[in-house]
Every structure is written in C-alpha cells, then in structure tokens.
C-alpha cells in the first residue's frame, strides 16, 4: 500500500517532482507535497467544490482525481491566478462585491468561475447559476458570489 | 438596499456607514489565508469512533507496534463537566475518550498517532473495538417515557435540565380566553456545517516547554482556560491561536474533546501533533442543534389579542452537555425569549433538556430563535385563520409598539421597530397584487404562498445575561487595546475572534472616525492568546456591539491624548483641533501636524508634555453592555409543486433593523448568508438517525446545505433605530438572517397548502413530508 510513484506535477507553470502513493488525491498532493495550501478541502467526496482547480483548462474537483492522473497536465490553482501584483479580474470582483466572508470556499469558487468563463465568456445568467450551484458556500448565501462572477465576466470580456 | 432611519440620525462620520472593501480579502482571494489544516506536523491523529450508540466497551485491540491511546492512557485528564447552578441542572461529565461506556455513534473511543494522516487512517481501520450493545434512546420524547434507559445515572429520567416559569396572574387570564390556539411544532436535528471542518494542531516548543495550539475556535481564550484545566497544566504554558477560520456558526464555540487530546499528546510526546476532521466526522460527531418539540398555546381575547402564552419546550441535547454554554443553550433561551416581539404579559413555560444516545447539541447560528420564531409565527397564522383576520392584521394587533418594554420574563427591550419593519415589508410586497396572482395561479393548478415572520433578536448581551442563567462561565465583556505605534500606524488587539464577519474592517472604521486615520492604516489583531487580550470571542451576534464598544472607548482615550499632544505641538486650544486625514489641524488655519509625527513625540519626547499624559500611545477599553434587541420582518414567497411536494422560494424579502450600520456591504452579506442557512434549515437540512442510533446523513449529498439554486435573490430594506444600550448605537445582526426563514417559509408553504386543508408544522419541510400530507388529504376526500 505504501509503494510510492515518482511523478512531476506542473502547478502554475512550475514543476514539482514528488513521490506519492497511487491512492493520493490530487488535492492532497497539491496541498501537502507541493505546499500550495490555497486549494482547500471541504468534504473529500466531491460535493462541496472547495478543492476545485483547473486542469488543462477545465475546472475539476481535485479530491476526486488521483495525483498520478494529473502528471503531464497543466494544473492551475488560486496561487497562480494573479499576475504578479495585479489581481485577476475574478479576484478583484470578489473583493469589490463582497463575494467572500470566511474565504474558505473562495479558492474553489474562483477556479470554478474562471475555468467556466474562459470557455464560455458569454454564459447566460441562468447557466451561470447552474454552474455555481456545483460548489457550496456556507457564509455568503451566494448572492454576492453571483454578483462577483457577473462583474468579472464583464471585465474578462473586455 | 433602502435605508429608513428612526432615532437621532447621523453624526457626521466619515468612515462609519460606508461600504468600504474588506481589509481581510486580499490574502484570502490569493490563497494566502492561513488555516489550521495548512500546517505541517510531525505526528497525525485519527480517532477511532464508536459504531454503536450505546453499550459497554469490552475490549480495544490495537495492531502490533501501533500507538493507540485509550481512556486508560490519559487517566489524569479531567472530564469536561459544564456547570449551571440553576434549573435543576444535573452536571454530567464527558470523558476525553469514551471510558467504559459509549453513548453515541461517533464518540471517540481511541486515538491513533502516526507519522502521516494516511498511516493513522490505515491503523485506525485495524483497531478492533468490541462493544456490548445496549438498546439506544434516540428520540427526545422517548427519552422521558417511563422506563426509558438511563443515559447517565446522575440525571434520573434523562432530564438534565428543567426550567419552569409562570407569571402570577396566568391562570385567571387564561380562563378568560375567547379562543385557545395551539401549535405543535417539530424541528429536526441540524448541523451548522461550516465549510472548514474542525482541525487542531498542537506544537511543543522544547526551549520554553510551551505548547502552541492552532485550532478552529470561535473562543480561543476560553479554549486555553478549559484545555489547560482539563490537562492540569499552567495556563500560561499554552498559547491558543485561531488563525483564519472557515466559518463557525456556533459549532466552533464549544470545547471539543479532540482539542484536549491533541494538546495532551503534544505535551506528552514533546512534538507537533495534528488532527483534521473529515466531513463524515463533522456530521456525526461535532455538535448538532435544533432537535426540538415545542408545543405552544396562545390564549386570545375576542379581538384576536394575545393575552397569555403557554409553552412546552423539549430539547434533545444528545449524550452530553456542551462547554461553556451547557445544554441550556437552546431550552433556556427559548424559555426566556419565547414571547418574542409580541405584547403578552401572562406567560407559562416548561423547558426541558433531555439526554439521548445522540451527538451532543450545542449552539448553532440563531440559537433557539429559529425554532421559537417558527412556532410563534405559526401560532399567529393559525390564530389569524381562526379569527378570520389577515395574518398581517393579527400581527398589527399584537406587536409591541411602546418602548422600553419589560417582557413577562423581565427582559428589558430597548427601542425597536417591530411594526415599522413589518409595514415596510408589507408595502414592498404589494399584497393585493400577490393575492390576485395567487388566485389566478390556483385556477391553473399552481400553488403560490406568502409567509411573514416578525421577530426580535437579543444581541450583544454582556455578562449579566449569562449570570442570570446561572452559568459557571459568564462570558459577556470585551477588552480592546488600541495602540498608535511610533510610525503612526494603528493596531487594535481584540478579544473577539472573527471568522468571516469582516470585523477587522468594521472595527477599523470605528477607530478611523475617532482618530482621523484611514482604515488601511489600522490593523486589527485577534485570535491569538499571546497577542490579544482575554476576551470571549465571536458568537451570539456580539462582536460588533461589544468589541465595537470597547474599541470606541479605547479609541476615544487615544483621541483625547492626541488632542493634548497636538495642543502642545501646535500651540492651540484642544477644542480648536480636528483630527482628520492622518493629521491634527487647527480649525480655520493652515496649521497642522501629522499623527505620525505626534506619535513619534509621544514615545520619544515625553518630557514635552509636562506630565500631562502617560508616555506612549496605548489605551484600553472594556465594555460589558446590558444587551439590546435587533428586529426584522422576513417575507417568503414560495411556489409549491403539489405533484412532487417540492417547494421553491421565489422571492425573499427582509426588512431589518440592527441599529447603526457600520458597513452596509458587510451587513448585507451577513443577512444574505443567514437567510440562506435559514432556508436550508426550513426546507432541506436534516441529520437523520435510525432507531439504533446510526446516522443516515453522514455526507454532504445526504445532509443537504442549499446551493445557489435554492437561494433566490434576497431583497433587503434597512431601518436604523439607534440603540441607547450600545455606545456605537449598533445592534448585532450576525444571526438575524437565520432566525426568520423557517417561520416565513413555513407560513408561506401553509398559505400555498390552504386549498388542500392540510398544514405542516415541521422543519425541514421536505418534499417527502409535504407529499405525505397531501396523500392523506387525497385519501380523506
Ligand atoms: S473537497 Fe473536493 S468536492 Fe469537497
Ligand atoms: S465564504 Fe465562508 S464558506 Fe464561502
């Protein structure tokens, strides 16, 4: 059970050579083996979406993927969203519209929303709520998350 | 948001009242938050939990060579025994690891310690616990039946707490009633479900011998006191840090056995030891809430005026009493606050806390009031029906309009706006238009309903309120230290411990107005017992009122000192000096000096102030207010699908009065979040036990917190009745959002159900429950 596989994960453009058990989830590998703790774990069973990261341009739940499956793929996490000191429009919109309270679900929502809007910049309001309902937030009541993502969508279209 | 003001109006403040962006956000949106689970550790703990709800532990077998800790290993560690000196309270102790007997599914029986989380998990799977099973007592009513098995010998009949109240003229007035209206309400068990589950990380420092415990706590100082007490260690050897905390909602307020054990292990093994709770553990073994049966009867006179109220509150408190509030947290608050916003001077109540073989019950956002409000508001709607008056009208006849008001239980209500907030809501809703739409829909076989809920929320109460309950631990006051450092930057060290409420920003706004520096120059330091003053943390909608008050007191002292310094340095009368834009200015002149320059002098040139001020620029404020009452009217508009029993909340409106609003954006966010939890409580969320005491809802797909789909857009209207019981004039609002929805949504569902002649008085009002009612109705016709 403890045989480890040596793999390289590419997170935010940087390579991490790590040794993990085949059963290790991508979420655990990102957090513990690569030290990128911005990605959070809220359930480990694929319901809450706190662990959402972008893998090869699609938002995925990193608790439902094994680290070994992510080898050779391009992984983006919340730590890589900002461009130096300039925040991503999504991060800025969450701050401007009070889209976060405790901030625990926030990295997952940011990655989910960025991943979706990059693929579908003109997403309808209805579809947007559909997508956002795949992650859970216990603080904001979603009102300001929806508002933030709409504001960022406008900004990203520019 | 629209604002309505009642009271003295604004004081020309520059920062208070503005929706400035939160100072906490830049780190959090960049993934730079620091949460307990982010810390690396040398050792990891996995708890082995009881699969049985009740029984005797026969043996615990650990795999060869594994480190497995059981009750026998921690003999010197004290049980957690919360105390209450009243209400026939029977103290029962909770062992840190089950000792001889197990009392609920999920109770920690052993702790495995290993080098990694995975290894600890693997070993835990191999630990064998043999338990001789006994029949479990799961339901609150079953627990008080004759012959029910005793959960603890100390509490005969399983009643751990019993409060009784009756006003002297009750029986006489009751006898004169024109109608007695009754509501039998049931609230099922719920879980606060913060997105971050609990976590603890204890590290031993070989140089000082001290332990630093990072944990997900709402009350770090009291955790330190209680844990040191259990373990029997000097309290000053323990430092407790609540770093970024991913929501608490009351669940992270109580002391949990796991933190005691993790701290004990770090001390014992002289290394770092960590535990991160998984979601299943959180759902079965953290703390639950809301599990209650409430029978409420109202005596009304012929004009539909409530003249007497009788309540029977039965709370299933689980297997133990929680620390520090004790299991009185729900039943005793229900007893004290049941009459809510209604004017009724005759009152009788029996409130009981009963023990069962279920997870311990503790505070959850709204505490008791979501249930009492839902019961009381159902009673009002039932009475309206019985008297054939409008639901709004019956409230008009009964809401308190004269302040201050002394309740039948002796609580002093300060100025509030029960009637006014309801009228704002009524106007915004346009009832005639809704009724017409409802009729049209009904004709097409579609069922719409509207429900109102008015309530008062006791907030910001100081130590006397807890003392009145007879609590051994009486939280209430807060202390704040405000320092202007020699560079002119400001820090405020607070005893409160926010976890998402934006307190760093709102307190900075209060200070900014007093001493004239912008909020970005002010740091609020909290959640660390080494760097923040002793205080009670964040719960019960208290922080902005109490910590805010203490902050204002300290900031005013700093202001007085700055004015003195400026007077000397600018050679002007203090009364001519204004503090703004980071400067002291002499009014009507162009003379000014920066606060940074004055701060430098306060430390380095103390001789210049001729002994008139103490050296340095630190001041303290302590505040222990009597408490105040926020209030609101919530309105839910629902669509009921009679085929499936599914309810959709189509519109939700809140007219709220929380006194002065320091930051409207943050205030609105608090209300939104509360309403969403309340809608979840009303429609979806339920911890389900089977008869054997096993939990059937141990993941988030079965225990269903609402998603963006279930929450409609929430319309907010604010009133600001400036409180005389709070020096910032702010009333608390952290919980308010959660209190109204069960009542408003249930009343709305029942309005929609009118054509079927059935009613539902149970939360959550799930499709299954609604369908069962409709099926019975179909059968009956
Ligand atoms: S942690 Fe991955 S979905 Fe919850
Ligand atoms: S902000 Fe706290 S869970 Fe979303």
TrEMBL record, chain A:
Keywords, alphabetical: 2Fe-2S, Iron, Iron-sulfur, Metal-binding, Oxidoreductase
Superkingdom, taxonomy of origin: Bacteria
Domain 2Fe-2S ferredoxin-type residue range list: 5-81
InterPro entries named in the record: 2Fe-2S-bd, 2Fe-2S-bd_dom_sf, 2Fe-2S_ferredoxin-like_sf, 2Fe-2S_ferredoxin-type, 2Fe2S_fd_BS, Beta-grasp_dom_sf, Diverse_Oxidoreductases
UniProt GO molecular function: 2 iron, 2 sulfur cluster binding; metal ion binding; oxidoreductase activity
Keyword Translocase among record annotations: no
CDD domains: fer2
PANTHER family noted in UniProt: OXIDOREDUCTASE WITH IRON-SULFUR SUBUNIT (PTHR44379)
Protein name, per record: (2Fe-2S)-binding protein
Automatic annotation (TrEMBL), chain B:
Organism of origin: Undibacter mobilis
Superkingdom of this protein's organism: Bacteria
Residue ranges of domain Aldehyde oxidase/xanthine dehydrogenase a/b hammerhead in the record: 30-135
Pfam families, per the entry: Ald_Xan_dh_C, MoCoBD_1, MoCoBD_2
UniProt key word Oxidoreductase: yes
UniProt keyword terms in alphabetical order: Molybdenum, Oxidoreductase
GO molecular function: iron ion binding; oxidoreductase activity
The name this protein goes by in its record: Xanthine dehydrogenase family protein molybdopterin-binding subunit
């Amino acid at each position: 059970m403890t045989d480890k596989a040596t793999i390289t994960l590419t997170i935010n453009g940087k390579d991490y050579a790590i040794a993990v058990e085949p059963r290790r989830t991508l979420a655990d590998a990102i957090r513990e083996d690569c030290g990128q703790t911005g990605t959070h774990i809220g359930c480990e069973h694929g319901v809450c979406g706190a662990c959402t990261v972008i893998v090869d341009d699609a938002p995925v739940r990193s608790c439902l993927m094994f680290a070994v499956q992510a080898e050779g793929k391009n992984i983006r996490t919340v730590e890589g969203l900002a461009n130096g000191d300039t925040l991503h429009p999504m991060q800025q919109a969450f701050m401007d519209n009070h889209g976060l309270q405790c901030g625990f679900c926030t990295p997952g929502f940011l990655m989910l929303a960025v991943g979706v809007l990059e693929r579908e910049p003109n997403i309808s309001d209805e579809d947007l709520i559909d997508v956002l309902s795949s992650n859970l937030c216990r603080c904001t009541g979603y009102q300001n998350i929806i508002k933030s993502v709409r504001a960022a969508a406008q900004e990203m279209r520019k | 948001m629209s604002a309505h003001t009642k009271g003295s109006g604004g004081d020309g403040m520059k920062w208070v009242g503005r929706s400035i962006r939160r100072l906490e956000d830049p780190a959090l949106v960049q993934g730079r938050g620091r949460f307990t689970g982010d810390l690396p550790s040398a050792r990891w703990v996995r708890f082995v939990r009881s699969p049985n709800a009740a029984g005797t532990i026969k043996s615990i077998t650990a795999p060869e060579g594994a480190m497995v800790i059981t009750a026998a290993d921690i003999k010197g560690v004290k049980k957690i025994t919360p105390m209450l000196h009243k209400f026939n309270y029977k103290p029962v102790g909770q062992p840190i690891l089950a000792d001889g007997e197990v009392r609920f599914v999920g109770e920690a029986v052993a702790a495995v310690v290993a080098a990694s989380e995975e290894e600890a998990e693997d070993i835990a799977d191999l630990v064998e616990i043999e338990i001789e099973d006994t029949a479990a007592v799961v339901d609150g009513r079953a627990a008080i039946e004759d012959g029910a098995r005793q959960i603890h010998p100390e509490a005969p009949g399983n009643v751990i707490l019993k409060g009784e109240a009756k006003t002297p003229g009750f029986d006489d007035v009751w006898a004169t009633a024109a109608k007695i209206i009754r509501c039998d309400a049931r609230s099922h068990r719920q879980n606060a479900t913060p997105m971050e589950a609990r976590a603890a990380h204890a590290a031993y420092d070989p140089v000082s011998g001290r332990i630093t415990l990072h944990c997900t706590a709402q009350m770090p100082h009291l955790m330190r006191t209680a844990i040191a007490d259990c373990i029997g260690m000097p309290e000053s050897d323990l430092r407790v840090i609540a770093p970024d905390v991913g929501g608490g909602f009351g669940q992270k307020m109580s002391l949990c056995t796991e933190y005691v054990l993790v701290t004990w292990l770090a001390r014992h093994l002289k290394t770092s030891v960590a535990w991160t709770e998984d979601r299943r553990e959180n759902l079965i073994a953290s703390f639950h809430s809301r599990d209650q049966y409430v029978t409420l009867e109202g005596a009304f006179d012929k004009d539909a005026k409530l003249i007497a109220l009788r309540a029977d509150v039965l709370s299933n408190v689980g297997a133990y009493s929680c620390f520090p509030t004790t299991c009185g947290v729900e039943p005793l608050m229900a007893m004290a606050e049941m009459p809510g916003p209604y004017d009724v001077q005759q009152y009788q109540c029996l409130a009981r806390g009963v023990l069962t073989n279920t997870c311990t019950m503790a505070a959850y956002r709204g505490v008791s009031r979501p249930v009492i409000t839902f019961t009381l508001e159902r009673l009002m709607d039932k009475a309206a029906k019985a008297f054939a008056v409008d639901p709004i009208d019956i409230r008009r006849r009964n809401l308190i309009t004269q302040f201050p008001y002394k309740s039948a239980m002796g609580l002093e209500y300060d100025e509030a706006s029960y009637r006014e907030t309801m009228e704002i809501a009524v106007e915004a809703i346009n009832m005639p238009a809704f009724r017409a739409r409802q009729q049209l829909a009904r004709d097409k076989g579609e069922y719409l309903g509207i429900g109102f809920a008015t309530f008062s929320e006791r907030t910001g109460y100081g130590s006397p309120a807890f003392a009145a309950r007879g609590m051994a631990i009486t939280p209430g006051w807060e202390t704040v230290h405000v320092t202007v450092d020699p560079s002119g930057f400001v820090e405020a060290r607070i005893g409160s411990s926010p976890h998402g409420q934006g307190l760093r920003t709102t307190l900075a706004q209060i200070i900014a107005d007093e001493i004239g520096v912008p909020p970005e120059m002010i740091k609020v330091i909290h959640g660390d017992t080494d760097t923040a003053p002793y205080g009670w943390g964040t719960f019960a909608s208290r922080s902005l009122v109490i910590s805010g008050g203490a902050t204002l007191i300290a900031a005013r002292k700093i202001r007085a000192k700055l004015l003195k310094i400026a007077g000397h340095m600018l050679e002007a009368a203090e009364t001519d000096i204004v503090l703004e834009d980071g400067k002291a200015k002499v009014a009507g002149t162009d003379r000014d000096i920066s606060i940074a320059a004055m701060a430098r002098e306060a430390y380095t040139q103390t001789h210049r102030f001729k002994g008139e001020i103490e050296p340095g620029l630190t001041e303290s404020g302590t505040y222990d207010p009597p408490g105040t009452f926020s209030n609101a009217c919530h309105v839910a508009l629902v669509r009921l699908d009679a085929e499936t029993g599914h309810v959709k909340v189509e519109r939700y409106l809140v007219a709220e009065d929380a006194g002065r609003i320091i930051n409207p954006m943050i205030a609105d966010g608090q209300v939104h979040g509360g309403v969403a939890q309340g809608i979840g409580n009303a429609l979806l969320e339920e911890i389900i036990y089977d008869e054997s005491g096993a939990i059937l809802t141990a993941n988030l797909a079965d225990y269903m917190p609402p998603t963006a789909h279930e929450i409609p857009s929430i319309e907010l209207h604010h009133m600001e009745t400036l409180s005389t019981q709070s020096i910032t004039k702010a009333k608390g609002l952290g919980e308010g959002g959660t209190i109204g929805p069960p009542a408003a949504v249930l009343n709305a569902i029942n309005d929609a159900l009118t054509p079927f002649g059935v009613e539902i008085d149970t939360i959550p009002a799930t499709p299954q429950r609604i369908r069962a009612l409709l099926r019975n109705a179909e059968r009956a016709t």
